[in-house]
Specification:
heterodimer; A: Ubiquitin-like (UB roll); DNA polymerase, domain 1; five-stranded mixed β-sheet; 5 strands; B: Aldehyde Oxidoreductase, domain 4; Aldehyde Oxidoreductase, domain 4; seven-stranded mixed β-sheet; 17 helices; 29% helix; metal ion binding (chain A)
Chain lengths: 153, 707
Amino acid sequence: MALFKLQINGRSYQADVEPDTPLLWVLRDHLGLVGAKYGCGIAQCGACMVHLNDEATPSCVLPVSAIGASKVTTIEGLSEKGDHPVQQAWDEVDVAQCGYCQAGQIMAAAALLKRKPKPTNEDIDATMSRNLCRCGTYHRIREAVKVASTKLN
Amino acid sequence: MKLAATAGGGLLLGFHGARAAAAEPMILDANAASAALDFNSFLAIAPNGTITIFSPNPEVGQGIKTAFPLIVAEELNVDWKQVNVVQAPLDTKKYERQVAGGSGSIPHSWKRLREAGATARVMLIGAAAQRWKVPAEACTAQNGMVLHKASGKKLSYGELAQDAAKLPVPQDVKLKEYKDFTLIGKTYKNVDNQAIITGKPLFGLDFYREGMLFAMVQRPKAFGMKVKSVDATQAKAMPGIIDVVTFRNNVAVVGKSTWQVKKAREVLKVEYEAEGALESTADHNRLFDELLNGSEATVRRQDGDVEAAFKSAAKVVKSEYQCPFLPHNPLEPMNFFAHVREDGAELIGPTQTPERARGEAAKYLGLPPEKITVEMTRMGGGFGRRLAADYVMDAVEVSKLAKAPVKVIWTREDDMTAGNYRPAVKYRFEAALDAKGNMIGYKLRGVGINAGNPTREQNFPSGAVPNLLIDSVEHKSPITTGPWRAPITNFLAYAEQSFLDEVAEAAGKDPVQFRQDLLEQAKKTPTGDVKYDLDRMIAVTKLAAEKSGWGKKKGPDGKPLAQGFSLYYSHLSYVAQVGEVVMEKGKPVVKKIHAAVDCGVVINQSGARQQVMGGIVDGMGHAMYGNMTFKDGAPDQSNFNSFRLIRVNEIPEVEVHFVNNGMDPTGLGEPALPPTGAAVSNAIFKATGKRLYKQPFVEEEPFKGIS
């Protein structure tokens, strides 16, 4: 066990865990942040996506010891009131079915739009194909990314 | 029906079972909102006008938590914005059929939910009429208010709730006409959207409680093996580990965090030995052929004289279709929380069948069911996997053995390799055509691994063919199987509708016309029972053909567009689909799927469309890519790097059309999936000239060379 200091959602946290503990389980089991989901544990489904210094990163394979001073943003910290343009778009387009993958989808989309505010269809598919949706909400995911893009202005 | 006034003046109304007449009013105590959950209620009205509607059925992504309350609200005449929706826990005294399965919730509850809303509305009107000393007929209710038009008086439901609760419960209240619906049929968002998009704890895996322990279970690596010996010395010495317990064929590591129990499980030393056959996919392939050719089979339906029909046939078509095992793979893996005490147990987690979970727990613990509570969390998908209670029992047994509140977590590998699965099946179809191309004989044999009856002998084309024989053979295997979204029909529909396409081709008929002719024949001269509605089948067939421009469109190469037709009735809904395929770089690409759907009244446009589009994506994804194989009883695939699920860059455009004929609504969680496989395979045939006799398609000839 070792004590790790983490910068998450603009706040400081401490966690006393094994150094190889993935960030995902530190967030969920130790810090009470359950928005990032466990889906596969091998960075294949994207349900655990968080931002590491603004870049979408699967938290299930990221050991807590590798984070250092990097800034972590989870779905809980994407916006203060749940009104980030991507969150708004996800609500308006009514994307979710079961909803389990959607926090990861939203984090992936938000990072894409930060990098590229006007993504092409190909950009959207290339980025969002890292995230699985077992319910098959992909049509609305595409649409919601486009809607969010229009809200950035 | 039960009725109660809360001390705070709220009105609670609900049903005990189906019979509204069987119950009498009762008085509830204070704390309207929290107390309401403890009572049998579909709705509660607080003095401040807040309307709470309880949704008793588990939410698995099918949208029931939005649709059910909408139906109550429609008859209650309230503004949807006033409504607060609450998931009710398992309570078999207060609710019926708290199940998410078989697309059965809507058809089962449609009338019951409407009666709940309408009864409350009549009582609220009655209370207003009494207070104003006017006839109830002179009053109307809308947007949560009762109005007396002549005098212009009005009162809110909140102001009337307490008086209304004192009135006798009316029987046989008049329900609204379809044309008078103001809420049903419009577009509504998922009621949990805000919680979902902000990452609030909603799912079973999100459940945490102070003092709760975590557990992972080591199961045999192969079906047909059992535990021989366990050495947990090293695992017990790992940090955070509290206990290691053995139950059934499982060894559970119990500890203080998910990661700690996962790591300790890796150093468990468990020896296994075979206790049954260790089967491989190669064995199943051999077995399928033996069973298809064997003389023993269970006859499911027999009409006319099949042998005579085939003897007199001008042409015979014969084909075999095969589908593999599939894991359900809900994105939230199996998990459950259990706290077993001496005198009872508390269960919390994702389940499609809370009553089954409680029943199995009660039996194992030797407790009466009423001593066990079950709280349903929102489910991160289920697809039938959470109809079983094995993973609930993991938590119950570990909690009992470890004497602690425990959440059992399955990793993705556990989820994919420990069953249960859609069964693997193979079909042989034979059709006899007369000289005019009429199908005069039809034979189907279905053989499957733990598939039960892999046919649906009452489905189309039964009733439309004068001589017909449907039979089946089951092989019992240690590989565990279970219902998978649209059980049986999820592969049968692909096989049957692909085969009918072949028969149409052999008969020299257009595939749509061929099916229409069969349906018309069944109307005119039905053979035996016809257990589906022929007019509804014909209507969706026509609608799909019309909306897709069947046979009229050109592809990018200027030639007729490759379209494939499929039609299926399942779970009381009727769905026809047209797939469209174009060739790109020598390979077929599914560009679009049109769907015509008759589920009766559409309750929520957004939710209904989602179910159809998701069902099509699911159906296509698994038909194209899904494959689970076995070697000596062990699955070859264990995570998403070896089991391929469809991704956003692989979906076709989907266009959905509802018939919306005003008939009582049926469910949509499943019916859109079955027809998709054949809409795709038949379109690929048009584009490539090659039939797809086996799933996954991507491993078949038209796709050879690409992954």
